[in-house]
Amino acid sequence: MTEHVVEQVDILIIGAGPVGMTLHLALAAGGQKSLLLDRRPRPAGSTLGVCEAQQTDPRALALSHGARQLLEQVNAWPTRAATAIETIHVSQKGGFGRTVIDRADYDLPALGYVVRYRDLAAALATQLSADALLDGVEILDITPADDLVTVSLRHAGQERRFETNVLIHAEGTPDDDPDVKVSDYDQHAVVCEVTPNPGHGKRAWERFTPDGPLALLPLGNDYSVVFTLPPAKADAVMAMDDAAFTVALQAQFGNRMTFSRPGKRSRFPLALRLRDTLVQGREVWIGNTAQTLHPVSGQGFNLGIRDAWQLSEILLKNGVDRSSLASYATSRRLDRQGSAFFTDRIVRTFSNDFAPVKLVRGLGLLALDIFPPARHFVAKRMIWGARAWP
Ligand SMILES: Cc1cc2nc3c(=O)[nH]c(=O)nc-3n(C[C@H](O)[C@H](O)[C@H](O)COP(=O)(O)OP(=O)(O)OC[C@H]3O[C@@H](n4cnc5c(N)ncnc54)[C@H](O)[C@@H]3O)c2cc1C
Questions:
Q1: Which numbered atom of ligand 1 lies nearest the CA of 299?
Q2: Alpha helices in the chain (DSSP H)
Q3: Is 16 in the pocket of ligand 1 (CB under 6 A)?
């Protein structure tokens, strides 16, 4: 049997997605080294260090003002790729009630920003140093012990073994895992980009329909569409030609504006996935591995970046050990549960056509419109996350 040299690393991060990379950069900014591992190979000689799957990811993410501030601190804010959201119009199809959230009420340059996943990943990857990431790795084994965690992996045809004080999981949405509770929404998100006429004027739209929420996010001159539908309807929408798709989108949205030039469509099945415990011994789960939410109200990455930031602050301040991880788990409880509950309630309350519920929804939207404190509560939660809780 071949004996491997055991390599020592203070902190190992599995997953170089936006959350893992943010954590690595936040730790580096505080003088703490860590090593990122990702199973996807980066193209040889790529200056961006973004893998093919990231380059072709069709998602656009709505990032909060708070997320922008954190990304700026690690020089990874993609200024030229970001489109500001100045107002958000919220309404329901076939029912009364609507509200508009306006940046002017919050003394902010924007309520949030829309950025393509690939541009966010590229902005983070360009900040990584040459030795920050092992790409194309296959994790072979993880063995936790009281005083360290051992990780065996294959990289470039070689088996390597690492010992680490803290192992951070940032691998994104988990597959079947007994520690993760899954609640299926029976909805798929169909995403694509379309050109609106007239122009979007930096306004985002959140429209609740009986099939699921429909979001239009300003992106450059276009809208990024997140069209949520039951799986069979998503099949049909995916199979439509561009003209039929434009008509289907228009039918959901009414005649406020027209759409043209729909781009390539992609789909994502949607479920709420919540890990029971964020910390086990010297292992910790952050970002989508800890919680995968419905994309309505754009909370996923915004929550994941707060995970990364809080964990880096605690590790830098208290040291790289088990007690820091326990503090981290406690500190994230409110933000995590609040965001998951908020998102889940919105989806379940708004995705049906039951008349009494429609009436209550209409009253709720009306109340948000005429009662500014309620609207401010919702808006601040979207802008700042947990810091908005009283
Ligand atoms: C349609 C849609 C719209 C969305 N819109 C928004 C939005 O508007 N705003 C918002 O904030 N969020 C949004 N989200 C959520 C957002 O995309 C996620 O929260 C975010 O991408 C999570 O980042 P992450 O780094 O945790 O995971 P990921 O982006 O999934 O990255 C995980 C990384 O881990 C690597 N990896 C996986 N397994 C392994 C392994 N075994 N070994 C090594 N590496 C591994 C992968 O290669 C990948 O690089 C949306 C999601 C969807 C589906």
A1: 11
A2: 18-29, 52-55, 65-73, 117-125, 231-239, 242-253, 300-318, 322-350, 355-370, 372-384
A3: yes
